[in-house]
């Protein structure tokens, strides 16, 4: 992609540009969600760019989590992924243009000299910054070029006026140019640096709106000045507040944040994740639960919050439970089936039509598909193992005659819900018992726990053969 391949400027074009130096977590994905949503809401384009110039820390595994996570959430880009390491020739081409126009100059100040300069400035309570030793000015005599030293290239930042933008989150921001020193835009080996590469990418990819975390606010005035030097208009900026973890710290891998794909493996629904993440910094009145389609119809940049949002896993589980309850039984069964297969249940056994009905029976009790699969498993497993505590509490010697009578009556019972309920009532009447006295031990023996939905519905789905075998195994 080169600058000549630009789209129509009026069309919204956003981007997500993660660095694959750690596994992408929910705070990162929230920064991807809003540019994706804005592009979808406006009929624009969403571009994925992998900023992989940190060769020591970047990894393919981290790239895979980015791609898998976005695919799972249905946040697929219209273009990309583009990789910065594959665009080095383009960066050097633009660098040469800036150098030829006098916007860039070589600087031979060593790292040791810079460190000593910073120490002196800090001791004098001054802001540490490059002092412009090698910056060419009319009438200025530069020091002699040291032998055998490869220079860095610095951008000649304007020294007067202000750089300003109307941030869609933070409002008007103005920075005096004399507060900015001359940025290094190429290392001694000629490799361009982050702030320069970002500008070239945003320029070539015709990005109209840069929606990113507010840790980039300090980079923005430098990037705007590079845009101006290249004769290009700056994008619209929106700097999103930080996402905090449950301890109130910035969400990061170091602070225990999980890779986004782990939520997929833990049984969260992509629709619920979109819903929850959307509310971490944006709102539509008091609406808490909404679909992806509603979110994209409602989303704009005017209702982004200015305050840091705090992650709350209990709230995420609640949101997930609401979406899970609203899903069709067939759709849930399609998500639960692969989990059961991983647990050793044959695909042929899952084709008997019971799984959607099992999902319907238990989905109101579950907050993840993993929890739903835990329930479903006992209906397909060859055997179950109730806890010793449940057995001791409910399957007592006193109830044994009633259990034997129920098992005998079930032998000739038509195996459907109403017949099972009628058989239960007959045995309860004959034994002089109330429903919980018999139903709870039956539940423990047949599905492993005393607390389930309607016992007749549960037994019908377990199946006659399994119910009889489990009632007799005590």
TrEMBL record:
One of its GO terms (cellular component) is cytosol. GO terms for molecular function: ATP binding; glutamate-tRNA ligase activity; tRNA binding; zinc ion binding. ATP binds at residue 253. It catalyses: tRNA(Glu) + L-glutamate + ATP = L-glutamyl-tRNA(Glu) + AMP + diphosphate. Its EC number is 6.1.1.17. Residues 332-473 form the Aminoacyl-tRNA synthetase class I anticodon-binding domain. InterPro entries: aa-tRNA-synth_I_cd-bd, aa-tRNA-synth_I_codon-bd_sub2, aa-tRNA-synth_I_CS, aa_tRNA-synth_I_cd-bd_sf, Glu-tRNA-ligase_bac/mito, Glu/Gln-tRNA-synth, Glu/Gln-tRNA-synth_Ib_cat-dom, GluQ/Sye. Residues 12-318 form the Glutamyl/glutaminyl-tRNA synthetase class Ib catalytic domain. A motif ('HIGH' region) lies at residues 18-28. Its main location: cytoplasm. It is an enzyme of class 6 (ligase). GO terms for biological process: glutamyl-tRNA aminoacylation. It is found in: Cytoplasm. Gene3D superfamilies: 1.10.10.350, HUPs. Signal peptide: none annotated. Pfam families: Anticodon_2 (PF19269), tRNA-synt_1c (PF00749). Coiled coil: none annotated. Keywords: Aminoacyl-tRNA synthetase, ATP-binding, Cytoplasm, Ligase, Nucleotide-binding, Protein biosynthesis. A motif ('KMSKS' region) lies at residues 250-254. The keyword Cell division does not apply. Catalyzes the attachment of glutamate to tRNA(Glu) in a two-step reaction: glutamate is first activated by ATP to form Glu-AMP and then transferred to the acceptor end of tRNA(Glu). Monomer. Belongs to the class-I aminoacyl-tRNA synthetase family. Glutamate--tRNA ligase type 1 subfamily. This is Glutamate--tRNA ligase.
């Amino acid at each position: 992609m080169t600058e000549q391949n630009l789209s129509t400027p009026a069309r919204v074009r956003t981007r997500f540009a993660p660095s694959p130096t750690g596994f992408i977590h929910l705070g990162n994905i929230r920064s991807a969600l809003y540019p994706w949503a804005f592009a979808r809401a406006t009929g624009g384009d969403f571009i994925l760019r992998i900023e992989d110039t940190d060769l020591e820390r970047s990894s393919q595994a981290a790239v895979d989590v980015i791609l898998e996570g976005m695919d799972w959430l249905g946040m697929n880009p219209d273009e990309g992924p583009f990789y910065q390491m594959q665009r080095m020739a383009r960066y050097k081409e633009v660098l040469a243009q800036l150098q030829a126009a006098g916007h860039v100059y070589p600087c031979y100040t060593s790292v040791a000299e810079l460190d000593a300069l910073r120490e002196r400035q800090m001791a004098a309570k001054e802001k540490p910054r490059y002092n412009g030793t090698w910056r060419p000015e009319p009438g200025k005599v530069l020091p002699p070029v040291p032998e055998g030293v490869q220079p860095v290239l610095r951008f000649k930042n304007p020294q007067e006026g202000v750089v300003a933008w109307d941030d869609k989150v933070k409002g008007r921001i103005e920075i005096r140019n004399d507060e900015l020193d001359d940025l290094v835009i190429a290392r001694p080996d000629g490799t361009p640096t982050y702030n320069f590469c970002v500008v070239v990418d945003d320029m070539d990819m015709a990005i109209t709106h840069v929606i990113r975390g507010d840790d980039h606010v300090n980079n923005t005035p430098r990037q705007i000045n590079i845009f101006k030097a290249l004769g290009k208009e700056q994008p619209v900026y929106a700097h999103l507040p930080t996402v905090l973890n449950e301890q109130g710290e910035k969400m990061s891998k170091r602070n225990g944040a999980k890779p986004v794909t782990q939520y997929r493996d833990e049984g969260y629904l992509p629709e619920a994740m979109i819903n929850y993440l959307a509310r971490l910094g944006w709102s539509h009145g008091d609406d808490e639960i909404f679909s992806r389609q509603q979110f994209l119809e409602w989303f704009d940049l005017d209702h982004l919050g200015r305050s840091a949002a705090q992650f709350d896993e209990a709230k995420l589980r609640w949101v997930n439970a609401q979406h899970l309850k609203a899903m069709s039984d067939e759709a849930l069964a399609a998500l639960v089936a692969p989990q059961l297969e991983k647990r050793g249940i044959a695909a042929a056994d899952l084709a008997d039509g019971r799984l959607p009905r099992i999902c319907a029976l238990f989905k109101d009790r579950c907050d993840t598909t993993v929890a739903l699969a835990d329930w479903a498993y006992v209906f397909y497993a060859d055997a179950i193992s109730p806890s010793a505590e449940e057995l001791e509490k409910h399957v007592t010697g006193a109830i044994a005659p009633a259990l034997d009578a129920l098992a005998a009556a079930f032998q000739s019972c038509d195996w459907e819900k109403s017949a099972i309920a009628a058989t239960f009532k007959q045995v309860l009447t004959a034994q002089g018992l109330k429903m919980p006295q018999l139903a709870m031990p039956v539940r423990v023996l047949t599905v492993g726990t005393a607390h389930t939905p309607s016992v007749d519905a549960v037994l019908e789905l377990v199946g006659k053969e399994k119910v009889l075998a489990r009632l007799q195994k005590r």
